[in-house]
Amino acid sequence: MTEFEIKRVVIACDAAADVQLAAAAAAALAARHGAPLYGIFFEDENLHRLAQLEIAAHIGLAADIPLPAAPGDVLNDILHMRGGTMRRALETAAARHHLSWSFDRVLSTESLPASEGDVLVIEAARRPFSGRWRPRSRLLSSMVGNANTFLLRRGREGRVTVVMTPRDAATCEHLVSAVLAFAERDQTVVFMSSAAQIRDLAQRSAEYAHKLMFEPRPDEIADILLRLAQLDPNLLVVSAEENMKVRNALADATSCDLLVVK
Amino acid sequence: MKESGMVGEPLPAGAREVGTGSDAASADKNGWQTGAAIPAELLRRAAAFGDLTFTTSEDLPLLTGLVGQERAVEAVEFGIAMQRPGFNVFAFGPNGSGKRSLVQELLEQRAASAPVPSDWCYVNNFGDPRRPHCLELPTGRAVPLRDAMKHLVSELRIVLPAAFEREDYRSRREVIDQQFKHRQDEAFGELERKAEAKSIGLLRTPTGLALAPVQNGEVMPPDAFKRLPGEDRQRIGDEIATLQTELEGIIRQIPSWEREHRDAVRKLTRDTTAGVVSGLFTDIRRGFDDLADVSAYLEAVQQDILEHADDFIAPNRSENQAAAPSDIAGEFPFRRYQVNVVVDNSQSRGAPIIWEDRPTHQNLVGRLEHLARLGTLITDFNLIVPGALHRANGGYLVLDARRLLTANFGWEALKQSLRAGEIRIISLEQMLSLASTVSLEPEPIPLQVKVVLIGPPPVYYILADADPDFLDLFKVAAEFEERLDRSPETMALYARLVATSARRNQLRPLDHDGVARVVEEAVRIGGDGDKLTTHVSTLSDLMQEADHLAGIAGKTVMGASDIEAAVRARRRRADRLYWRLQEEIERQTIRIETDGERIGQINGLSVYTLGGMSFGHPTRITAQVRFGRGELVDIEREVALGGPIHSKGVLILSGFLGGRFGRSGPLSLTASLVFEQSYGMVEGDSASAAELFALMSALSETPIRQCFAVTGSVDQLGRIQAIGGVNEKIEGYFDVCQARGLTGHQGVIIPATNVRHLMLRSDIVVAAKAGQFRVIPIDTVDQGLELLIGLPAGSIDITGNYPEGTVNRRVAARLAALARQSRPSESRPRGPRRRREDERD
Q: Which tens digits make up the pLDDT trace of A124-137?
């Protein structure tokens, strides 16, 4: 089985993120693979614009009743402060693992580096089932929309993984190797599209056979989500080649970590 | 150190009968008479065991129970059998009289056939955790309940999480969550679409949401917005305001959606839990369905588990648990399902008998312990620790009365529990209103216990006098005798008692003489030749000491010599001060004369009691007489060294002199009495006879033979009365005389009523038998005067005079002379009286 190569770990967070979770996961991953760590704070130009638009309406969601959110001029201060927070979190995480690291701020998702061998780690606050609805962040939308390898870190603990293979059998082995590269797993369930695919992968991954379970991939998105709820994994691995509709649904409707593998 | 004439000892029985004539008659029958030396064999009456024959103590049958305590046995038996409130027992008597062993024996007999009481536990009160419930269970059922609950919790911790891991639960939960999510998605999605149609974006910001005009999917740059025509800006502003109102409406709805979601999740959790729990509870209920209280408790537990299933599902719920030792604390979310067994009688046979050596408030009624968690002290019903009353409930509780009274609030706690008929666990802080922190108030447990207090007589009498509750709560007084009558039967029983003690203490057997010597010591300790002490533990100690000495000597059987050696050794360990005093007498630093004659001087006898050791020694008493107004000056009293009883004795002398010599006129004398070289307190009236003899000698100007020492009190009629410590006093004087050389004239004059108390040392008996020392009993002052002065005392004739050549005649003559001396002053003309030299300030 080919080894999944990680050359660089990039952690990208926006102002709404809890950077501690992502920083710790990214630093651990970088340390595991001897890769350097790059931190990027996505300030989002839209927020800067919003801060200057007097006509914009700000609504807080912290309480049960809508409250006036921070006025526009405070928004800049918050962005600056959150950037500093991320830098310190990155510094601490890197120091713990003796990693080389760097930090930068960007205004646009187009400025996010994404070359071969990069893994982007982004953070999305854990979404318990009783959580409030929020618009998806621009950073997440960008990640899901692009076909790069990234880890959506939500802080779910556990050692069970579900790998969802696309119809294309060629990527199955790559996904499984990615799983093994990311962490020790007690159990990995692989959704396969056909019996032939299962046989083929079982042969290729014979040395990991005791960790792998294979089962047919449900056809409909709703069935996939239901089966995921039953398995309750802490990591879901999908291919970047997966259907966009499926990727969006998995990003929005699950609460586990999501690894999209290019 | 206390110097004493009588050491405050009570008068022996029969002392009040002196002078009635019956004693004199009986005295003759017993082989002695007043005014003459007592035969040596009566100075120490050897032990005789009647028909009981034995070679060693091994031949004697064991004795069960106590000798001579029939009254106490009857009282204790009555008290422990009487099943009514307040009939608790107070067993009191001297130390070592066998109170504890008797109470133990009688309680064991009674308790063995009594039913074993119930078990008791404390369990959580799910309605009000501050007031834990108590549960009464039939004997031996509490521990199974505790174990069943423990097993239930451990089962639930496995089964419940598994139930919530099952696919059917997860599927149902997913449906509920998705419904909630869909509701939000639809509402916000609709708003988002409406906004998008109007080129307005709904954005996520670090602090919430924002509505702003968008252009090509991005927020419109502020400059571009400013360049828009005014109508457009106005329209966008209005649209944003409208959308904001709609958005706020949706947000206001979210709490109710969340509530519905939570209710749906809770119902699912409850349904899932109920399915698992009901099966497990069926098994437990089956084991306790005959107990209504337990069934009710189990129902409450089941309901609570349904409400708190999350405790079993969430694995790391009690992150603070590490702060408490797990073996004590248990696991905190589940502690409320534990059963705290405070009384387990499963191993008991009969009713419990509890001896509580530290009867403090907490040790009696129990206490609430606390655990330190994160710097805070916490408690729950599992930390209820039972007290002695819990353990004794349904049986017997035995307490040392002195310890109970000196222990912290022990007496109050006991009284409250007995009065209320229940055990209420309340901390001292709460009881004294010292703390107002929130704590537990465990449900009180009904109390049915028989309390037996053991203590010395003064404690009983003090409580009876000072505490109005005492006699209501302790209606049965069991008083133990200090001594028992000496008779062949009791002597035989005593011999068996000695043998029993030797065997129980695994001592060498005693031969016949050894047993006799122990019994004689029992008589001596009793201080009465007709009595035996009940102070068995002292004799037991003596035998153990003798056994030790016999072991050193390589003997297999203890004899009289071993007992004697132990007595001597014991005395020697404690009599350093005694021999220092004897030494000072011998060196004449303390002046005591044992031969010759002196006017107004006599040897009195005192007893010292020091550290449990009593010994007697002579004291020189002198009297001086001069012209005066009928006053008798007690110098000890004047300098505040005389106690009230001593002063009373001296005042009685005035009464005697007045009665005998002052019938026809006032006594015109002033006399002073003093204990020479006495520098401590003098108490008791046992020297009053000696003081009277010294006074009569001074008045009659006739000398007293110094070879005698005298002890005894006197009444106003001149009759000699019994005193205490007669043996020690005689021995003290004998030692002085022996040190100087026994002359055959020396001896001690004692009250005739004290003859029955004689149990002197063997060496004195030997000296008396050889005619070297005498003990002479007297009944009256006149008998003493004749012995001491060597002249007849003289009886008053019909003319009111005493015969020539008698002591009384001389005294009367001297008093008459003093009276004549006073007459001229009385005939002086009236005027300011001159102060006389002998008048006190």
A: 665 544 456 777 77
